[in-house]
Amino acid sequence: MPVTDENTSQLIAFIENFSKKQPTLPIDDSGLSRILTQAVYISENRTMYTTRFTLISDIISEADYQARKQNASAITADIVSQAIEHRRYLQKLPEEKCAQMIQQRETVLDVTGKKTGKVNGLAIQDRGYYMFGIPVSVTAQASPGTDGIINIERESGLSGEIYDKAILIIQGLLQRKYARGIPLALHASICFEQSYSFVDGDSASCAEFFALLSAIAEIPLRQDIAVTGSLNQIGDVQPVGGIPEKISGFFDTCTILGLTGTQGVIIPRRNLNNILLPERVQKAIEEGIFHIWAIDTFEEGLHILSEMEPEELAEKISGNLTEYVKLMKNLYK
């Protein structure tokens, strides 16, 4: 429901009524503010409160338990935060296992330097009771040929229909932007590295397109930045889900492997209302050691990742695609 004065008053009345019926310790103003903040966080939109009131009731009950354990006289913001963090601790075993694999370098990820044909994408692991974000290496290879773009996930039977549609959109966008006057004489492959389960959705299409362009133009891209966002055939970056979890997931990965102060994420500008982050991530952003870039078009994201001007990039990509055509013509002479 929208965050309005009336709805805020009604939600506070619900919280106070539930507190009296339980009964719980009194909730002070800071505690009320923290619960309202969590109601917004659950909705994943700065302009909305969640209407899943059972989740709000659970937070109040758990905060009351934490307050009584500490012999507190009231439920404060700090106590509510402790209750929320304790719930996360109880549920995050799968997330801890992923973090352990990253720390032990079983999951191969780079969060520093530059590489060609490789971009850090952002994925969501949804366990039903708990959802968290993890970075995934998205790689691409390109050479002259006639096969177009090969979707390795589809060929392996690991992709859904929306994911497959996104790959076809990428091919259309590549033709529109860089090969309007020539045939697309391309053999390319795109892959989610170390992904062994079903993949669906189009939120990785920005990362996939950047990796493909990097492979075609042989341009290295920054590995200290992770990317999420959907693309259309015009090149606009469209909003996606799971923004808070994706940003937090990459921040935690950078923390494990070493924060450098230059790391961050690229997200669609249309997702700005969905930026609701844990306190640890907010603090890092305020201190300037983690960053968020919001973009409207893929050219903006490519400029950030490559640190090259759009005109120079376009010339390089188009030039290499033209060379592919020439090589294929010579091959069939």
Brief overview:
This protein has 333 residues and is α/β, with parallel strands linked by helices. It has helices at 5-21, 29-43, 53-69, 77-91, 93-103, 152-155, 161-178, 205-217, 243-257, 279-286, 298-306, 310-331; strands spanning 114-116, 118-126, 131-144, 148-151, 186-192, 220-222, 225-227, 230-231, 237-238, 264-268, 291-295. The radius of gyration is 23 Å and the shape is elongated.
Model description:
- The protein has a seven-stranded mixed sheet. Strands 1-6 form a two-stranded antiparallel ribbon. It has a two-stranded antiparallel sheet with strand order 8-9.
- Helix content is 49%, strand content 17%.
- Helix 3 (53-69) crosses helix 4 and helix 7 (161-178) packs across helix 8.
- The chain has helices at residues 5-21, 29-43, 53-69, 77-91, 93-103, 152-155, 161-178, 205-217, 243-257, 279-286, 298-306, 310-331, and strands spanning 114-116, 118-126, 131-144, 148-151, 186-192, 220-222, 225-227, 230-231, 237-238, 264-268, 291-295.
- The chain has twelve helices and eleven strands.
- It has 333 residues and is of the alpha/beta class.
- Strand 10, helix 10 (279-286) and strand 11 (291-295) form a beta-alpha-beta unit.
- The chain folds into two domains: 5-91, Helicase, Ruva Protein, domain 3; 97-331, 2-Layer Sandwich (Ribosomal Protein S5, domain 2).
- The mean pLDDT is 92.
Order of helices and strands: HHHHHEEEEHHEHEEEEHEHEHH
Helix content: 40-55%
How many structural domains in the coordinates? Answer: 2
Largest sheet, in brief, is:
7 strands, mixed
Number of helices: 12
Structural class: alpha/beta
How are strands sequenced across the largest beta sheet? 4-5-3-2-7-10-11
Give the overall shape: elongated
**Average of per-residue pLDDT values:** 92
Rg, alpha carbons: 23 Å
Number of strands: 11
The CATH architecture term of the largest domain is: 2-Layer Sandwich
* CATH class descriptor name of the largest domain: Alpha Beta
Low-confidence stretches: none
Measured between the Cα atoms of the first and last residue, the distance is 66 Å
The proportion of strand residues reads 15-25%
